[in-house]
Design a protein that fits this description.
six-stranded mixed β-sheet; GMP Synthetase, Chain A, domain 3; 8 helices; Rossmann fold; 21 strands; alpha/beta; Spo0b-associated Gtp-binding Protein, Chain: A
Length: 425
């Protein structure tokens, strides 16, 4: 089964928790802080791989999570970082974020984009030692990894694409000129998925794609071919196959007009793409004088071929190879891209009913301690929030002492900012 569009959820690994621990020795009744930090969670990457041909595996499994970090331990033992998760996709895969913004176009083997950030590991109490804070009794919890929905869309990367009506002979042609083995039968819409084949001409080669048959109205969703029109967008050259046999209700001249119109309706850029026109199934005709005369009047170079007898296939394939070579020389190589976004703001404040809600990783990190019922930990979090400017923003927004403020899962009462020296954070 060929799958070229999926929506999946990716989640970074959770960070491990830091630990509060002390080493007690003679002469040090309070002990020396020795709590290790937790390991950070793994990140999630989407990586292009030449070994992948479809997005099928993602349609069966829509949720993917990177490894979580392990917790810290005493004696300054830090937790292990979670393993990154690399999701391998075919070359030519587009990556969209949850709101539909294109964030990456992966066209080269090994090209990757990070789509899920792992949570930071919590720091142990040994990390909070300062000259003024010699024996901290608190540690941080690990942060949760980001959870995001993304859409993966595949646009096949082929040098040339076969375009034609259903049963025009595209699958038979690609099976004759390459090692591809598509399904072939005598009923409409035999090809339900694109097929790729490598055509070898001496020391030359190019990739040929067989696109499912198009009919009039395909660009508006009629028939099956509209689902795969996107796969023509990356082809350097289009090979339009006309079928003069009685199988088609539309004559070859109208077939060309309709196919060009459908390509233009899908993407105006496609009609300016180099294309060759071939007359298929010439073994079913008594002679090709009439179509050749029509092509001459229309100013079209027509390649008569028969995939059954092999007539004209070499001439057509060499012409396609020449056109591909010319296009490669004249057109810049598609490099792909990864969208680098600005850093997220540290926090945001809004009112929901009678509660002020503070969101943002920096604010959540400020209260992410193991036990806020410990006075020392609560005081440290309050100073962190004041240092970030949360108190000032709440005051400017109209918060008064005693108002409920929620950060993550924690709700507390707002008090004016603390002006004490924060020390090292």
């Amino acid at each position: 089964m060929f799958v070229d569009r999926v929506r999946i959820q990716v989640r970074g690994g959770n960070g491990g928790a830091g630990v509060s621990s002390f080493v007690r020795r003679r002469g040090l009744p309070k002990g020396k802080p020795s709590g290790g930090s937790g390991g950070s969670g793994g990140d999630v990457f989407v990586r292009a791989s030449a070994d992948e041909a479809s997005l099928l595996k993602f349609s069966h499994r829509p949720h993917w999570t990177a490894g979580s970090g392990t917790h810290g331990e005493g004696d300054l033992k830090h937790g292990k970082r979670g393993e990154d998760l690399h999701l391998e996709v075919p070359l030519g895969t587009l990556v969209y974020d949850e709101v539909g913004t294109l964030i990456a176009d992966l066209v080269k083997d090994g090209h990757e984009v990070k789509v899920g950030h792992g949570g930071r590991g919590g720091r142990g109490n040994a990390s909070f030692v300062t000259p003024d804070r010699r024996a901290p009794t608190f540690a941080e919890q690990g942060e949760y990894g980001d959870a995001n929905w993304i859409t993966l869309e595949l646009k096949l990367i082929a040098d040339a694409a076969l375009i034609g009506f259903p049963n025009a002979g595209k699958s038979t042609l690609i099976s004759r000129v390459s090692a591809a083995k598509p399904k072939i039968a005598d009923y409409p819409f035999t090809t339900l998925e694109p097929n790729l084949g490598v055509v070898l001409l001496g020391e030359r080669e190019f990739v040929l794609a067989d696109i499912p048959g198009l009919i009039e109205g395909a660009a508006r969703g009629k028939g099956l071919g509209h689902e795969f029109l996107r796969h023509t967008e990356r082809a350097r050259v289009l090979v339009i196959l006309l079928d003069p046999s009685e199988v088609q209700e539309t004559n070859y001249a109208d077939q060309l007009r309709i196919l060009l119109a459908e390509l233009a309706a899908h993407s105006p850029d496609l009609v300016s793409r180099p294309y060759l026109v071939a007359l298929s199934k010439t073994d079913t005709l008594e002679n090709t004088d009439e179509p050749m005369e029509w092509a001459q009047r229309a100013g079209i170079q027509l390649f008569p071929i028969s995939s059954v007898t092999g007539e004209g296939l070499d001439q057509l394939m060499y012409a396609v190879a020449d056109e591909v070579d010319r296009h490669v020389r004249e057109a810049p190589t598609r490099e792909g891209f990864v969208l680098h976004r600005p850093l997220r703001s540290t926090f945001a404040v809004k009112r929901e009913g009678d509660t002020w809600v503070v969101s943002g990783r920096a604010a959540e990190r400020a209260v992410n301690l193991a036990d806020l019922t410990v006075p020392e930990a609560a005081d440290f979090s309050a100073k962190r929030l004041a240092y970030l400017g949360v108190d000032a923003v709440l005051e400017a927004a109209g918060a008064v002492a005693g108002d409920d403020v929620r950060i993550g899962d924690i709700v507390f009462s707002y008090t004016p900012a603390i002006d004490d020296d924060l020390g090292e954070q």
